[in-house]
Amino acid sequence: MTVPLSVLLPVHNAEAFLREAIDSILAQRFRDFELIVIDDGSRDGSATLLRRVTDARVTIKTLPDSLGIAEALNAGIEAAHGRYLARMDADDVAAPDRFQRQFAYLEQHPRVAVVGSRIHYIGRNVPSQDFRPLDAASCRAYLLFGTPLVHPSVMLRRDVLTHHGLRYEARFSRSEDYRLWTRVQAHGDLCNLPEALLGYRVHAASVTGQHGGVMQSEAGEIQRELVQHYLGRAITDAEAEAHAAIASQVGCRSWDGLERMRAWLRILRQANADTHAYEAEGLERALAIAAFHVCRNSAALGIAGWRAGRPLWRAARPPARLRLRHFLAAWLYTLGVLRGGAG
Is the pTM above the cut of 0.85? Predict the structure, then answer.
């Protein structure tokens, strides 16, 4: 049996939000798909809930033990019959036209291997707006700092994985998607649609909330490998620390921190000028997006810090709402309404 699309939904103790996630998939305007649910050793009521799903498009694959998301997804890939694969997480919600829009985009852009989308956040105390690279050149360069794609938002060509023997790597237990995209980008473009087509839930039990430290460690390994492989530069410990601070979007609380970021971005730009590994405009946009995320968390430097950081991120053209929030926070620190300041 061949279908246009296989949707992979790994589940592990996801009873609280699972029904809403499945309902959002089954309600898609694009209806010609199979939904493969991989129950990765759940011990809550997830299995009972799944047994109540009667839609003929749904296949439930049960793993006897919890093998982790990478192995669960690999099992789903092996079971899939679709030309394209779409990802969903068991606590997220897909917009009704998500599959329709992504399927049409891949049909019209044969060079694109993976297409994601912007997202809107669900939950308390979550970011106000999603901001990430969109075009292929910027997404490829942004891999130097992290994944430009929100994993449960993507749709990809299955033949890119099968023809090149690519799968999720279990040893990257919390950065399995980031690792895969660094491999896939050698065989096709990565990009994002500008619309928010996924509701991304943020809560204490999410992977990011529980395993942020492991994710940063794994991501650091991937980033050092990319810088060395594509830019021909081994990173010193001090440079690795500066790169990690940018990648993790840690705000600068001193002028020294801002200068370290500026200096490291300058080194990356020069390395690319020497190697031509990345399209120049795409690299500039990626560096600017990375710098903006750091600078918006550096409001404690006040309005002077805002002015000093602005040239680093201006090329990113962040959304007006995010620029305004960054500017106002810097003024509040300058006026002393918020506590902070340069050391």
Answer: yes
